[in-house]
Design a protein that fits this description.
The chain is of the alpha/beta class and 284 residues long. It is 32% helix and 19% strand. α6 crosses α8.
Length: 284
């Protein structure tokens, strides 16, 4: 449920029905980051799929085909260039010590399987956007959809690869005359908001207590932000919770085949959390 689309039994439903409203009286600590330091910011995670359709033909007659792979690679480059102009590094990312700005990149590519001497009719390139919390996801949805529409309307203006590469064909015997680009989001805008990024309140009692407790146990506090994503944290913040984030695993083993933690970090985690509770109580 925490990642959307579940049976409605997670934190989102608990908040919706007011079951933890008493937590508005103080900070809420979300223990789900890593490296035993305060995490003061995360990014939103937005998945996308781009489907490119051309015209299959024999590779010995390339002027009669529309190469979906070439169309995909050229169109994606245009979309990435537009993304980085529209969502550049934000001035607040430095304050929050983000390791990376917002990014858009492909992570998977599929192509209709055929012979090596066939110009492919279709391919799908998929990936994600990691959007820092200083940008709104709806703006991304709106811009990407308008960019794809503009590419379709002006597909003949896309760069080609070689003298016989083209995305528009002519002739009465040609069944497919234009390449087509289709954008599909990995989730609706509403569901995607479950994975929005957060910028924690750096002036709150909870953040100060977390930094002080961490420094007392680990020798120093080194808050950081990361373009990894956590579910529901932004939604809870919007509901008025002072949400702060920490965690005690190892980021270098995230999603590794042999993901592990150190027992020494777990011992220190108990000390940090115990001291954190004490400091929060003392501040009341």
């Amino acid at each position: 449920s925490e990642e959307g689309g579940g049976p409605g039994v997670g934190v989102d439903m608990v908040v919706k029905h007011g079951k933890i409203k008493e937590l508005h009286n103080g900070p809420v600590f979300w223990v789900d980051s890593a490296d035993s330091q305060p995490c003061c910011g995360t990014a939103g995670s937005i998945r996308w799929h781009l489907k490119f359709t051309g015209r299959i033909f024999h590779s010995g007659l390339p002027h009669k085909g529309i190469n979906a792979l070439e169309l995909g690679m050229e169109a994606l480059k245009v979309l990435q260039d537009k993304f980085y102009k529209a969502f550049p590094a934000h001035e607040l990312e430095k304050k929050y010590k983000f390791m990376c700005p917002s990014t858009m990149k492909p992570t998977q590519m599929e192509c209709a399987k055929g012979s090596l001497n066939q110009i492919p009719r279709q391919c799908v390139i998929s990936g994600d956007v990691r959007l820092t919390p200083f940008y709104d996801i709806k703006e991304l949805y709106d811009k990407m959809e308008s960019w794809v529409k503009d590419l379709n309307d002006n597909i003949e203006k896309l760069p080609t690869r070689g003298p016989m590469s083209k995305y528009v064909l002519e002739g009465d015997d040609v069944d497919i005359k234009r390449g087509v680009i289709e954008l599909e989001w990995g989730a609706s805008l509403k569901d995607c908001r479950h994975m929005e990024g957060i910028a924690c309140d750096l002036s709150s009692v909870g953040f100060k207590a977390l930094c002080d407790a961490t420094a007392a146990v680990k020798g120093k506090a080194a808050p950081y932000s990361i373009t990894g994503s956590l579910p529901l944290v932004r939604e809870m913040q919007k509901e008025g919770f002072d949400l702060q984030i920490t965690g005690f695993g190892l980021s270098k083993t995230y999603h590794a085949d042999n993901e592990y933690v150190l027992l020494s970090d777990m011992r220190d985690a108990f000390k940090v959390l115990s001291l954190l509770i004490q400091k929060c109580e003392d501040s009341v």
